[in-house]
Amino acid sequence: MKKAATIRDVAAHAGVSVSVVSRVLNGTGAVAPAKRAQVLEAIDALAYRPRAAARELSHGHSDTIGLLLADLTNPFFARLADRVVAEARSRDLQILVMTTQEDPHLEGQALDTLLDRSVGGMIGTPTGHNVERWEKLSALDIPVVFVDRTVGELAQVDVVSIENVGSAATATRHLLDRGHTRVGIVSGPLDTSTGVERVQGYEQALRERGLARDDALVRPAPFRGDLGAEVVAQMLALEDPPTGLVVANTAQVRVVLRMLAQARVAIPDDLSVVVFDDNPWTELIRPPLTVVRQPIDMLALHSVELVHARMRQKLPPAPRRVRVVAEFLERSSTARI
What we know:
Number of domains: 3
Structural class: alpha/beta
Order of helices and strands: HHHHEHEHEHEEHEHEHEHEHEHEE
Number of helices: 13
Largest sheet: 6 strands, parallel
Strand order of the largest sheet: 2-1-3-4-5-11
Radius of gyration: 24 Å
CATH superfamily of the largest domain: Response regulator
CATH class of the largest domain: Alpha Beta
CATH topology of the largest domain: Rossmann fold
Shape: elongated
Distance between the termini: 60 Å
C-alpha cells in the first residue's frame, strides 16, 4: 500500500528543512518567497495533506469514513445518510458527513477538508466534476465508493446504485401498457449518470412499442430549486400534451405534485403519474402514488461493506459495480387512458 507523503517527504522534495515546511504550513515565522514556492510545489506534487502523518501514527489506518452527499434537504439523501451511519456504527466505524449542495466548488472544498481529517475511506455522490481531486484519493490509497451516481472518467471507482435503466423502463412501460402514447419524463441533469440512465430506460420502453422520442416530452431539471414545476407546466401547455408522466428526479417530486394540485390537474383522470420516491407520504396522499421504490437500506449496506473491505484490503483491485433492483409499486395515480 502506498504511504501518504509525510512532512519529511515534502522537505526532501523541496530541498528545505522540516522546520521551513512547518513554518509554511502554520504561517509562523518568515520564509523567503522562493523557498515558500518550492514548498507549495512539493505539497502539490506529493498530494501531501497536513494531517497525513497523524494517520500513519494511528496503526497505519483510520476508522473514519467520509460521507459526501449531494443535498441533505433531499429526503432520499437524508435517509441514505441515516442508513450509512447505522451500517458504519455496526462495524465500529465513524462517519464524517458533509454535503456539496450540488455545487462543484463546495464539493472540491469538502474533499480537501475530508482529506485533512485523515479519513480512511470515502462514500460519495459526485457532482460529476472535480475529477482530479477524486483521483488524488486513489493516489493516496484512500478507497472511494460512489453511491447513486458515478463519473465516466473515474472508471476505477467502485459504484453502488439502483438499476436506473431498467427502473425507468419499467415505469414507462407501465404507462404505455395502459394506453398512454404521450408519456413525459422529468429527469435529473443530463450531465449526471442518473439523469442519463433514466432517460435511456424511458427511450428503451418507447422503442419496444415502436414509438419515437419527442424531445418536448423529455425535460431534465436540476436537483435543487423548483424548475421541475416549470418544465411540467411547459409539457402540459403543448398542443398535444402528455397523458402520462414519469418523475424520475426524486428531488423534484414534491415540487411537481404541488404545481399539479395548484393547476387543478386531476391525478389520474387528467394525468397518470409515476414517481421515483419512497417516502411514507407517497402512500398516504390522495391518490396514493405509483412509485419506483429505491432500496436505500441496500444502497447503504453495499456502500459501507465495499469501502470497509477496501480499507482492510480484502478485495482484488478491479472496480466493483453493484446494481440494486428497485421495487415497482402500483397504486392509484395511474389509470388506463
